[in-house]
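Hello Y.,

Per our agreement to keep a running log of every chain we model this quarter, I'm adding this entry. I've kept the format consistent with earlier entries: sequence first, then predicted structure.
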Amino acid sequence: MRIIKLKDNPNIRDIGGVYKDVTIKEGMLIRGRTLRHLTEEQSAYLVKKCNIKTIIDLRSHDEQKEAPELTISGTNYELMPIFERQKDGISHKENEKPDQFQIYRILPHMKNIYLDMLHGESLKNIGLVINRIITGKDDEYGFYFHCSEGKDRTGIIAAILLSILGVSRKEIVDEYLVTNKMSNKKAFKYYMQIKYLRLQPRFALKVGRAFLAKKIYINSLFEVIDNEYGSLDEFLYKGLNLKKENIEAFKEKLIIK
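Predicted structure for the entry above:
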């Protein structure tokens, strides 16, 4: 896993590389956040040096409308929302200020938000995104998939792709938690603003945590797989409606033997 460092654009990384039981080609699967703040030089770097060819935006239509994605020459952009309604704690508006955080008072536990994502219409949409990636043509790789902050929706997609490729759960969790290296600063910023401007430490802690990745959140995926489907294969076939032949072709394309 290689962190791609771009000024003002944190939390971008290539999830290919060497894992305990498998080595995945680099430049094929890159995860991150919205790219609306890229400079022309940074855009060129992602295309030429990081091999980004297809951008999959996991945000809702409303999010995309409020914060349009930057058009990057040499790439194909596709909007594939995981959900259309605003999910508190997952959909973050740009330039949020302390007085705009009142809705976080009724924020459900983040684990429940993840569980909600893994059922119903959201799960169907996750299946569509995974299928789009695993059936991609050779000239469509690498795929860059992102949401607003690159933590929740992006984290779920990355975890499923790595699971398909044979990466252990421990390594998937470790990869997911790398987000905190980039998000800690923002979480702390909002925490401090609310704590000291509003003098509401508990509320500040709740808001700050919404910007952080935690093991208990991503473990929701594994709980759904184990408790509701019994195995990864059943989750992929019945939960996400993927085809075995497409999964095998994807593994053949990305795994270095």
